[in-house]
Design goal:
This protein is an alpha/beta fold and 346 residues long. The chain contains 16 helices and seven strands. The chain has two domains: 138 residues, no CATH class; 165 residues, Trna Endonuclease, Chain: A, domain 1 (3-Layer(aba) Sandwich), CATH 3.40.1350. Strands 1, 2, 3, 4, 5, 6 and 7 form a seven-stranded mixed beta sheet that branches. Helix 11 crosses helix 12.
Amino acid sequence: MDKKIDKQDYYNWIHNLKSKIHAAQTKVALSLNSQLLELYWEIGKDITERQENTDWGSKFIEQTAIELKNEFPEMRGFSRRNLYAIRQWYKFYSEKYQFVPQSVAQIPWGHNRLIISKTKDIDEAEFYCNETIKNGWDRDTLEIQITNKLFFNKGAAITNFPKTLPATQSKLAEQALKDPYNFDFLGLQNDALERAIEDELVKNITKFLLELGKGFAFLGRQYKIEVSETDYFIDLMFYHLDLRCYIVVELKAGKFKPEYAGKLNFYLSAVDSQIKKPEDNQTIGILLCKKKDKIEAEYTLRDINKPMGISEYKLTDAIPENIKTKLPSIEELENELMGKLNTKND
């Protein structure tokens, strides 16, 4: 007689089995992608060498595209346009590499085309390849990060981390911050107040977390702590999964002032004393301001012993939707102008 199946045991087993299959599918997909890009590398190399060493004429790539599409009708990568892109991609990286770089081979071809069309050098391109692999970005997200100049902004915040954190933690923490942060997804103008910005950041928490970067887990806004029977409220509270520490974020709608660091320092002491557990690393503070003076910020952090960074954020200059809908359209303006002209001519 068959034994009764333990449902929980079966569910655990089937979950593990599915995970193994998903992992195998991912491995196969990565392998196929890598093989395809190795093929594109060889094609790009052959086309480049033939163009440089023969007099086959200007129609050479167009004719090659026709021949390959006729021979391999099931493959989509042999259009004239794609062959030109393959040649450009090969020439871009072959200045430094003899074979397709490992990070480049691990991301899809569409991502590769986007990166070489929007970056200026190999270091910048490889940075976006590695970030794509690390964060699992789709192509739209990758384009947003390139447009927001993540390569130039990451690690650019003014901090005292080298003085206040162990070397390994300091390096990780510096890379977790950037300057400036781009909050244009909020649709707020530059004169927006702190509470309005905070409200919209929480409403758009997914986009906010994407802008902050990998590892930030949102714990809450106006996070209450009590010190000596007085309630205090932290603007935004996070835990960073890679740094293994709490992150206190204070948001300021104006220019940075040195006294802001004193308040943040107080919050860090409170969180370290009341919330931080023995296995957590030291709490880090981030001041997000509309503007800052670099020298002033560096002076402020010089003698502070709690780890903190100071960054700017940028809002959009675009017209908010609620105002935009009240403005006349181009067509309405043209019709009004034509009406006035017709009246004048009559």
